[in-house]
Amino acid sequence: MNKVLLATASGVLATSLFAGAALAKSDNGNGAEKKAEAAVKVEASVDTKANKNVEKTSQDTVTDNTYGSTGHQGFKGLLNAIENVKDKPAGAVIADLLLTKYDGRLTAEQKAELEAIKEKDEALSAVADLLEQQGSVTDAVYVQKDAIKANIKNINSYKKLGKLYDKLGKKGVKLYVNGEEPSFEVAPFIRDGNTLVPFRAISEALKADVAWNEEERSVTVTRDGISVKLYIGSTTAYVDGKEVTLEVPAAIADGSTVVPVRFVSEALKAAVNWEPETSSVIINEE
Question: What angle do CA 171, 173, 178 make, to 5 degrees?
Fold first, then answer.
């Protein structure tokens, strides 16, 4: 998480941790469990503008205000706190704080454990949910992208990101390749029930070689010994020289060659998933 996102998320969690600390003193040993729950509740508004405008992030807010002055006491306080919230949204934020601020005091084993907590996709998605609840939708998008990178095969993570994009007004078909969003001049679109995407964008995302033949008006992509050839306007294509019939042909849209994404991806041995609720095409190399 970058500093701005950490500042926002930490601000949300700081007030929750205060409440959790009070609960930890009661209920006959159930305090730790209640503290873990309290750490993920939003109990106060966060001035996100202030968080973004200060160079000093709320790393200091969580450490200093919640656990005492910076230094050994703050370090130990965070280590104790994370034991109760490893599987909660607070876990990802506190792990990031420890790795950022107290890297020199951590053992190799502690660092490995904290990295695993920080990168856990469920925890990151939960942090994104908190940010969304606070109205920080743009920040939630960046955290949800990290959640996808932590587990590129979790379809629900893509659905959550798609819904956040919809909230920001980013409509239309979304495209992801190995957890990343390729850049393209022409947005993907649906024609006759098939999703067409810019050929060069998807080929480059899959690290394939692309060749255009002006005379034939054909495009050929080669990857790992597999060759796929398509002709503009034709439903006939070739995979390693074998003829294949397409449902929709390759076409030219606003100067870019677009192709049926499922055919090309699967021909290149990549897995393709369609998430209908957010119109997301998710491609992962098998």
Answer: 120
Antiparallel, parallel or unpaired: β 189-191 and 236-239: unpaired
pLDDT tens by residue, the chain, 286 residues:
555 555 555 555 544 444 343 333 334 444 334 333 333 333 333 333 333 333 333 344 443 444 434 444 578 888 888 887 766 656 777 887 888 888 888 888 888 888 877 777 887 888 899 899 989 999 999 999 988 988 888 899 999 999 999 999 998 999 999 999 998 888 999 998 899 998 888 888 888 998 889 999 999 999 999 999 999 999 999 999 999 999 999 999 988 889 999 998 999 899 999 999 999 999 998 6
Burial 39-70 (b: 16+ CB within 10 A, else e): bbbeeeebebeebeeeeebbbbbbbbebbeee
* Cβ(35)–Cβ(175) below 8 Å: no
Question: Helices 31-38 and 3-23 meet at what angle, rounded to 10?
Answer: 150
